[in-house]
Specification:
Elements (H helix, E strand, L loop, with lengths): L1 H13 L3 E3 H6 L4 H9 L3 E2 L5 E4 L4 H9 L2 E2 L1 H7 L12 E3 L13 E3 L16 H11 L2 H13 L5 H5 L5 H9 L7 H9 L7 E7 L2 E7 L3 E6 L5 H15 L3 E6 H6 L1 H13 L7
Parallel strand pairs: 5-6, 9-10
Antiparallel strand pairs: 1-3, 2-3, 4-5, 7-8, 8-9
Helix pairs in contact: 1-3, 5-6, 6-7, 7-9, 7-10
Amino acid sequence: MGTDVNELMAFISDRGGVVRAVRVTEQGFGRRAVDAAVARGLLVRPRRGWLAAQGTPRTFHDAARFGVVITCRTGAQHYGLWLHDASGPLHVAVPTTRTGHVGAHARVHWGAPLIPRDPDALVDPIENVLAYIAECEPFEQALATWDSAFNKGLVEMAAMSRLPLRPAARRVLARATPFSDAGLETYLRNRLRWLKVPLRIQTWIHGHRVDALIGARLVLQIDGKHHVGAQRTEDIRHAELKLLGFHVIRVSYAQIMFDWPAVQDLIMRAVAQGLHLAA
């Protein structure tokens, strides 16, 4: 029996920790093995017909319990996408035919999905997650999350363009790029479009990777939340760019997030002085 329980737990773990009970039966595990795992506290039954391993994230338990699918902001977190703010309620999707209670603090998304959902899945496909993000988040924040998905290679821009996207998603896709690996870079690109000055994000200059190159000579570097260790070493290397004739503006994560007018003013004044132009 011990071996059966161990094999059962390995099977469930390989499938994310939460599975339909019928899949366990189809795999040849008997009721005795399931009951033994439950008795030992290794398994719980979040809902009739579902089994969940102890230690599985609460969001998966809740999704199985209420018969919903994790999507939108919560789905973005699952896929490791950049989010402006990771706090907030659980975001879930339900079919249009679904009625009833789905959790007191959940943000519920209704409607038919772009990509059909596997009945065993507890997390929406990435395409559905992005479509809901476009409707749920402010434009700039949604754009940053989409850029993150494209940068990670989780979905191709061309593939998204072939889907029947709603207007909000179409607007986000029109501005999206696969070249921003952090939301702050997306914000920068979006906020400086009006300057009509060439802007390259995450580019290489003489062996140095910089966050942004404005025009031909103005470098903008965004310091992270922590300015130590390997990042500090890389920042010192950027000082070499000054010796090569580049002008370097350094701003912090906090300035981009909470004091953008001051950052924009600094960039505008640098451009006005021609610091972005080739020597």
